[in-house]
Amino acid sequence: MKKERYGKLITEIGRLLEEGRQRALQSVNSIIVQTYWAMGKKIADFEDNNGKVYGSKLFEQIAKDLRHRYGKGFSRSNIIYMRILYRIYPKSQTLSDQLSWSHYVELLRITNALERGFYEKECIQEKWDVRDLRRQIESRLFYRLPAGRKKGGFLQLASEGHKVRKAEDIVKYPYVFEFLRLPEPYSEKELEDKIISNLQMFLLELGKGFAFVARQFRMKIGKKQFYADLVFYNKNLRCYVLIDLKVRRFSHADIGQMNLYLNYFISLAGSESDNAPIGIILSRGNGEVEVQYALGGISNRIFASKYQFSLPSPEELKQLIETTKKEIGCKSK
What we know:
This protein is an alpha/beta fold. It has 3 domains: 108 residues, no CATH class; 54 residues; 166 residues, 3-Layer(aba) Sandwich (Trna Endonuclease, Chain: A, domain 1). It has 13 helices and 7 strands. Strands 1, 2, 3, 4, 5, 6 and 7 form a 7-stranded mixed sheet that branches. Strand 3 and strand 4 form a beta hairpin. The protein is globular. The C terminus is likely disordered.
């Protein structure tokens, strides 16, 4: 008993220490951001009044003189980012104490104000580290969310962030699995194995509220055994989410299979407090018209999307923006 009490004491002390260190780090980060904002203001004011005298060499000269006086950490690009920080956030009160200078450098590289506002809010809400933020920006998350397909959707994303209120809010188009590094050709088992090996990144790509439940979830229906590739639970929607992985293009037969799985979960697997489950079929590609016809008349919540193994190129980004203006074929209950 004494050892248990002592162990509890050490655990509680350790938690306080970690919390204190986190607050101290957050405080330091906030001070650095505010200091760089103030420096940016000084530089911007000087530039407005004397810019013509120094021209484009102003930032290089400032960086050189600061390095001479204060050491490393003052590159020309850093000086420029300080000035941009002030230009974009003219009121220092609008800066978040949840974000570090490294976070803001990633955000300042985004020229689209709506897109930048979205990532800023998501980064704060989801507590992304700098690597996660960079990855979400590079994968063009802003343009892959279903909210962008609605009139005024991008404006809403920028002001609120990504809100999960209904089933279709969790579906992306396309999904980006660049972190899997899966060589061609590959099997569904190899794809599933890679996902499990990179589960943390896969959960980041899935989005808000997902928790892993099982792989190859066994279902006995009549005298036959069926297996759902991946099963998750979404706490925001309070329901199970079944994911069926395909290494080929979408087929209308995939809908019937997923509908069978969802009916099983409705009748046996879920509790009374759970909402109806959701099915997502991920394939290498699908035709919008074919998906719409295949989903017609299905009462269960089934969605079809595609995945790719590379980050979107500039050309693909243009296509993504156009795609978000159209329905991708989904059926809600």
